[in-house]
Amino acid sequence: MATADCLQITREVGFDSLLTAGKPYTTSCPLPFQADSVKTARDVTRSTLADWGLTELSDDAALVVSELVTNAVRYAVYNGNHRGIELLLMRVTPHVLLAVADPSDEMPRRKEPDFVSENGRGLYIVETYSQCWGWDPLDSGGKAVWALFRAEP
């Protein structure tokens, strides 16, 4: 899928509205700024995909969501006046969209992977395991970093 097509899908979805209202085939989960949020995000992702009958995506999606939440916990500046992290999963047939919103306005930067280092490979992993990824600024401040997966019929 071309990057332009991915961008069109995310614009049609509208992250701000999804984060504030329940929609069919959408799951959201607020997460605190702490390390165990990564496990919670993986569990929510696996459970949601199982409920949707998409267990074949579970391993890749759980890995990608782990990286997105880790980045949000590690790099998003926590300010008591801002919201925390929000995990969003949405089924947009034939795709599944995973997004992690955080209060930081900093754009995510993909680094060239250093396979010796213990960190710095997160967005490389997201890019490798998802169909495409990107980020969108939120009207309320902050951003949503997202990854798109194709669900086989």
Question: What can be said about this structure in brief?
Answer:
The protein is α+β, with helices and mostly antiparallel strands and 153 residues long. The protein contains 5 helices and 5 strands. The protein has helices at residues 3-13, 15-20, 37-51, 58-75, 122-129, and strands at 26-31, 85-92, 95-102, 132-137, 143-150.
Proportion of residues in extended strands: 15-25%
* First and last CA, distance: 17 Å
Give the CA-based shape. Answer: globular
Spell out the helices and strands N to C. HHEHHEEHEE
Portion in helices: 25-40%
SS summary, helix count: 5
Essential attributes:
153 residues; alpha+beta; 5 helices; 5 strands
Describe the protein in words:
It is a single chain. The chain has 153 residues and is α+β, with helices and mostly antiparallel strands. 38% of the residues lie in helices and 24% in strands. It contains five helices and five strands. The chain has helices at 3-13, 15-20, 37-51, 58-75, 122-129; strands spanning 26-31, 85-92, 95-102, 132-137, 143-150. A five-stranded antiparallel sheet has the order 1-2-3-5-4, with helices on both faces. β4 (132-137) and β5 (143-150) form a beta hairpin. The longest helix has 18 residues, at 58-75. The protein starts with a helix and ends with a strand.
